[in-house]
Write a structure and sequence with these properties.
The protein is mainly α and 75 residues long. It is built from two helices and no strands. Helix 1 packs antiparallel against helix 2. The radius of gyration is 17 Å and the shape is rod-shaped.
């Protein structure tokens, strides 16, 4: 399965990208939940800022999965 060190490094990088993508998506979801709480509490500016950060984090996590992880698994 793993014949040399290059394959082991490739596997480690794939796992690192997967963890980073999951962390970005999870952090984005938490930011979205916090933005809903802030908006319902009356803090409009902070709630909108958190909503924007959440959208960017979720999009970045999805791009990491589609560009890095899926491409590495297909190879």
């Amino acid at each position: 399965m793993l014949d040399n060190a290059a394959e082991l490094v490739d596997l480690a990088l794939t796992l690192l990208y997967a963890v980073a993508g999951a962390g970005l998506i999870g952090g984005g979801l938490l930011a979205e939940l916090r933005s809903v709480a802030s908006l319902s509490g009356g803090d409009l500016v902070f709630g909108l800022w958190l909503a924007g950060v959440g959208v960017v984090a979720i999009a970045a996590g999805a791009m990491v999965f589609t560009d890095k992880v899926r491409a590495r698994l297909a190879a």
